[in-house]
Amino acid sequence: MTAFNRIGVIAKQDARATETATQLLAYLEQAGRQVLLDQVLAGRVPAPADRFRERAALGADCDLVIVVGGDGTLLSAARTLAPCGVPILGINQGRLGFMVDVPPDDMATHIGQVLAGAYVSEQRLLLSAEIDRNGGRRGPFLAVNDVVVRNLAAIRMLEFETWLDDQFISQHRADGMIVSSPTGSTAYALSGGGPVLHPGLEALSLVPICPHTLSDRPIVVGADRAVHIVLGGDANASAAVTCDGQTHEGLRRGDRLSITRAPFRLHLIHPQQYDYFSILRSKLHWGRDRA
Questions:
Q1: How many domains is the chain partitioned into structurally?
Q2: Looking at the annotation, which residues are catalytic?
């Protein structure tokens, strides 16, 4: 197990997360760790100026980064930190909390176990997206959960093709398409009727958004091949590509969006008691009797 001696802290920009980050800073310093803080916490968390770093620098300078917030905060941090390979631990200061699984009320116990080497480590697949437009390329754009093509027109559907490498899958008329990693299978893809994929799988799910044809169903493909989406329709076709619902790029008629497995992984750290299926049962209310 890795000795986490230099630890970075990132927090959501609200009062509760800031208070938790301040408590976390005090705990880690008392435990003899050197703590570096996300630059956006300057002026909110009391610490000397030389402790603050740009977020990308935290990934390069730290052995572990702790994210205080919800899943959205962790997703944003992960896209920056993942290329560095630094492990990330989440403290849940949000609502749902599929990925941030340390409760703030019991933070000291769980963090203490992690610092003592008692934790679960896993590597998760990430997505990389590029847009090919008239021979020029935009990207790559990184996604932890999903890459989504969505319609920007209010009264018409999108028309587009899907391909797996050079193998044609189908022609679609729909409001868009969700290409999800296993991590993202419990996010937007799930609400669109997609399957839950275990995070250890090397697979992607393709989930049409409100398809015109009811038989246009979600499918699962291997992550070792590229998924291509080619936007068709008339010249007025208007769509956007979003990554994790947090980054945005325009898509035009004739553009080719390519989604592949990223060349690096997201390294997550969990408390020793981590159980993926327990989280599913809790968050999705599986197996609960109705009153």
A1: 2
A2: 71
